[in-house]
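The protein record filed below.
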Amino acid sequence: QLHPVESGGGLVQPGGSLRLSCAATDFTSDYYAVGWFRQAPGKEPEGVSCINPSDGSGATLYADSVKGRFTISRDSDENIVYLQMDSLRPEDTAVYYCAVPAAAWGTATMDPNLYDYWGLGTQVTVST
């Protein structure tokens, strides 16, 4: 079992920024694809962004709704994957989750069904 832990959520005004962290407490995050997902009340979970393991490709993916506003990155020394969120909009309001698959060195995907271990989530609220 792997246990990713999210933090960094909060209340922010439209146009503001937040940085979410996904800390790997009991595994080396560089070895795994990591995905960020969100779920708003009454809606299905949505893939936000994902990043490949640190095997040289560094490939990332973004949902169309966040392209140009969100950036996913790794800090290998801290064993954390970040989601920098800029130009936030009210429609970005949701609980944000990070997730990892059971197998190391897989290709990152935006399909939540392919992730096995999920954090408890962090609330992001964009409002005046």
User: Anything to note?
Assistant: The chain has a mean pLDDT of 95. DSSP finds no helices and eleven strands in the chain. The first strand starts at residue 4 and ends at 7. The two ends are 39 Å apart (CA to CA).
